[in-house]
Structure formats: structure tokens, C-alpha cells
Amino acid sequence: MILLSHIIDSETPTYGNRDTLIIEDVSRISDGASANSSKWTFTSNHLGTHIDMPKHLYEDGQALTDVPIGFWFSDSVQLIDVVCDRAQLLEMDHLYDKVNVQTEVLLIRTGYEKYRNTDKYWNDNPGLAAGVGKWLRENRPNIKMIGFDFISLTSWKYREHGKEAHLAFLNPDATGNPICIIEDMSLNKMTSSPKTIIISPIMIKNTNGAPVTVFASN
Predict the structure, then answer these.
(1) Phi, psi of 71 (to 5 degrees)
(2) What are phi and psi of 109, to 5 degrees?
(3) Which residues pair with 38 in a beta bridge?
(4) Which CATH number fits the domain 2-6+45-217, given the four candidates 1.10.260.40, 3.40.50.720, 3.60.10.10, 3.50.30.50?
(5) Cβ atoms within 10 A of the Cβ of 164, count?
(6) pTM to 2 decimal places
(7) Predicted local distance difference test score (pLDDT) of residue 94
(8) How confident is the model at residue 97 (pLDDT cuts 50, 70, 90)?
């Protein structure tokens, strides 16, 4: 088994460098309490390795708890390598004819997570072009999720286009099924496309997205 999520802590990088997880002790055995307990404050639910659901941008879009349990499992996973070391929009010509028709979960590895402990990870990150979402929905209808090893579908240097790209993937009324987005994944330990993937979100009712723990088996 391989962990495809980053461990979340107070140093986790976030899009725009504006959010964080604050961890505070509520009780400590070392202070004489009967148990250790903590208070966690997420300044955003879109932090660390997390999923964007259609409700992220559409009031009538699917929320986290609207999909069946089987949605979070797949035996049709494909890993595609697209090397990238700067801000750019990855277009369909980077992916065309590489994506299998039966793929349900598409993982794109750029190698960008090597910059994760630097500002470059959030202020010079690549993103996906809106045309990728449109093409995948029209031509690869089995895809239900896409994940990648950079901080956001939106490139910080192409922010205006980033909104359009999110809409292309998540719009519940566009052609094909919405494709949920897993951002900020850890893909550097993979040697091939996994046989099985499990995406385990924090299950909070009616939410538009949440941190996810992703496990894969080769």
C-alpha cells in the first residue's frame, strides 16, 4: 500500500499562502489531565490533499455526502507523467490519446511536489486548462476524479483562467459527468499505475470539499 496524501500540519502549504491548520492542546496527561485531546481549527476545508466537489462552485452541485460509498473506490486508475517545473497551463496535447477509455481516476504526475517546501509551490504552480475538463467529460465518460501533485487546478499566475477550468470540471449541467478534483497529492513514490485506489474524505454533511486520505495498491 502507498499513501498518496501529504500529512497535514501547521506548515502545510496552501493556495495563495493564506490558510492554515491551527492545533491547540485542550487537555494533556503531562499537566495532570486524564487524557490527551486537541482542538483543530482549519481556516479552510480546502487545505492539504483535498477534494473539490461540484458544490464548491455550484449551489445545486453534488456535496461530499451526496455520492454513493462506491464512488470513493476504484480499480481503474491511470497514472500519466507530464514533467513540469514552472507555471503553465497543461493542455490536452499533453494528455491526448494517453488517457484510457476505461479510466475512472486519472492521476497526473508532474514532479512539482519537489518544490512543496518552497514558495514556488504555490506562487509558480502549473494548472490545468479548461479544455482538459471539457475534453475528458466528452471523450472519457468513465472518469469521476482527477488528481495531481501540484497545489491547485488553478495556476497562481493564470488565476482568471483557473475559475473557468474549475467550472469545466465541476459543472453539473455540462456535457458528461462532473469530474471531482483532488489537489496537492503525493505521487513521487509510485512506480506505475495502481491497481486499486481508496479516497477517504472527512465525511461532513453537505460540504463542498474536504481533506482526503488516499491509499493505493500496486
Answers:
(1) -60, -30
(2) -110, 120
(3) 25
(4) 3.50.30.50
(5) 14
(6) 0.96
(7) 84
(8) confident
